[in-house]
Description:
Layout: H1 2-15, H2 18-34, H3 38-41, H4 43-48, H5 69-80, H6 87-96, H7 99-124, E1 127-128, E2 134-135, H8 138-146, H9 149-183, H10 187-202, H11 205-234, H12 239-250, H13 263-280, H14 287-291, H15 299-328, H16 338-349, H17 353-384, H18 389-408, H19 411-435, H20 437-452
Antiparallel strand pairs: 1-2
Helix pairs in contact: 1-19, 2-7, 2-19, 5-11, 5-15, 5-17, 6-13, 6-16, 7-12, 7-13, 7-15, 8-9, 8-19, 9-10, 9-16, 9-17, 9-18, 9-19, 10-17, 10-18, 11-15, 11-17, 12-15, 15-16, 16-17, 17-18
Amino acid sequence: MEFISLVIEKVNGVVWGPVMLTLLIGTGLFLSFKTGFLQFKKFGYMMKNTILGVFSKKQHEKDGSGVTPFQAVATAMAGTIGTGSIAGLATAIVSGGPGAVFWMWVSALLGMVTKYAEIILSLHYREKNEQGQWVGGPMYYIKNGLHLKWLAVLFAVFAMVACLGTGNATQSNSIAVALESTVGVNPLITGIVLTVVVAAVILGGMRRIASVNEKLVPFMAVFYVICSMIALVINCDKIPAAFALIFKEAFNFKAATGGVAGYGIVLAMHYGFSRGVFSNEAGLGSAPIAHAASSTKNPVHQGLWGMFEVFFTTLIICTISASVILTTGLWSTGEFQGAALSIVSFNTIIPGVGGFVVTVSTIFFALSTILGWAYYGEVCMEFLSDKSEKAVLVYRCIYVVFVFIGTIGSLDLIWSISEAMNGLMAIPNLIGIIGLCKVVASISKEYFTQIRK
């Protein structure tokens, strides 16, 4: 176990070191210039055509080859509004300091256009499988756009393994921790029940997953936001100090406990970007897999939803979560981490009720993420096995087993493995986005020129 931890630590040191940070920031900046900073110029248009137009008929239309645009969004949102918004955010603050929150914001502002580009490419280069359903994602636009089959295979392998950790084990682990710390449920019991529930849903394929997430995601998001705002109203006098601490620590060039100059800001950036990507998935290439299943004909329509996902999950949900944690001061004790820190923080502000709120939110967030990432892994397996249904069934069985493993595994090791896989799958995806940036710019220009006429 120590050897595995050491290897994973070395991998993380490389994939989340200066090279990865430069690649993530560079891709976001490059795409921002290439699209004329679309995430800012078209922000109002994006809001109007996504969340403000969620009840329009076109968001719920589907054909026999895909799910509705909103179902695709709900599945992708299920993958992003996971425990990254609760446990991941808390881990970032404990490990990287309050300054990590600032760098999560930066990752989101740049990630909005990165995710927009991923989704456009995913829909533009998608294919139909043997069941006549749309399938897509980075492996398809790398293969069909860049014509680099080996790089596409590499992404699919990394993504498939990441699904077992990032989208599965870390989520089930957070559910187990939340239930054990609040109501004393044995993780073994949690593992058994959760495994049965997940198996019952994912064996029904994408349409059943999308149908469940379409109902689950809006409910859990609204519930968590309302409860969090109540907690912040109670602690409103401490909010200015919390935000001042975020900005101060974001540029702290002196290590808190010794070390060389620059260690503080590097650590904050490391955890800010890695946990930021974990919360919104911009640059990973995972969410476009869900969006590709949509019946939407115009890639830009679905790409706008990708921008909204990043805005909502990191700039709204994570900011609210961070504010609650920082106003209590419990993050600095080192006594709590992950979902446990969020639970204790909420419970401090709203005794009795607060812990229940986070526990329920964690369960819903994590469950929807497990379901969403199950589909990502299936599409990757389908791509690698040349559309073999038997191979997909085997992957589903393995995926279900990892749900149980996550509930009884080591939190630190599970998060480390997930972080490593996130970084590895991001590399080929970012190469694909940069290589096909002209396609993104061309499709965007054509669309926005037409709507102006």
